[in-house]
Amino acid sequence: MDDAILSLALRDAFPTTVFYPSGRPLTAPRLELCRTIPECGSSVVTAYAPAPGWQPEFEEYKDNPRWYVIRNPPRRYLHYSRTSWFWGSWEPAHWAFDLPTPEFGTISTNYDPNDAEQRAFVNGVWKIISKLATNRMKSGISKDRVVLSENVGGGMIWAGHNLLKWCALKPGRMIDGSHLPCDDWKFPETPWYRDLHARAVAMFGPEFGGAPEK
User: Model-level pTM greater than 0.85?
Assistant: First the structure.
């Protein structure tokens, strides 16, 4: 659900934004463009925010002529390796958290800081993420009832509010096996967030998200 909401927020801020499943090779000179990240059905997604009227041009991948690459990729983009779910290992173990636990992904881009358009895009994305997620959490070991830190802020791991809500519903749930919502965390109730959430629910249904089948 957090991915769906992020998709809508990006499209609102940058109306030309499109998403495609970049975690698989292009075996034909065309893109499977999607409206949202979840609709890509891929663990790796690229978001493009091209200039109006942009059309992709393709060329053969030099190391494999059966694959294609985009010759004219937009200068504004995000590369997103999405959150995955850890279900344990093949070895018997007593985990300090309930399985599954959502493992962190990554969002990245390259840009020229002297390019005003690219800089504005990156700043705009950070502004969106800071409203849809937080890096202020606490860490602990749940089965030992040990809280290692009550309030960790400024870290590299950000959690979307729907994921924090999922985590808060059951005491043994943790994010990446170590992170928990702060005691004073609250689900956002701003009109902007409520609108995004309602639109995402209208697209995917109220039960969308959460851990998939093992």
Answer: yes
DSSP state of 178: T
Residues 6+ apart with CB under 8 A from 181: 137, 138, 159, 164, 167, 168
Tokens of 30: 């065309």
pLDDT digits (tens, 9 = 90+) for 37-67: 999 999 999 999 999 999 999 999 888 888 9
Better pLDDT: 205 or 64: 205
* C-alpha to C-alpha distance for 38 and 80, rounded to whole angstroms: 12
Q: How far is CA 31 from the centre of its chain?
A: 21
The CA–CA distances, whole Å, from 200 to 45, 57, 139, 161, 170 equal 18, 31, 29, 14, 24
User: Structure tokens of 6?
Assistant: 């992020």
- Among positive and negative, which fits the CA dihedral 55, 57, 58, 62? negative
Token code pair at residue 24: 């698989």
Count of C-beta atoms within a 10 Å radius of residue 117: 12
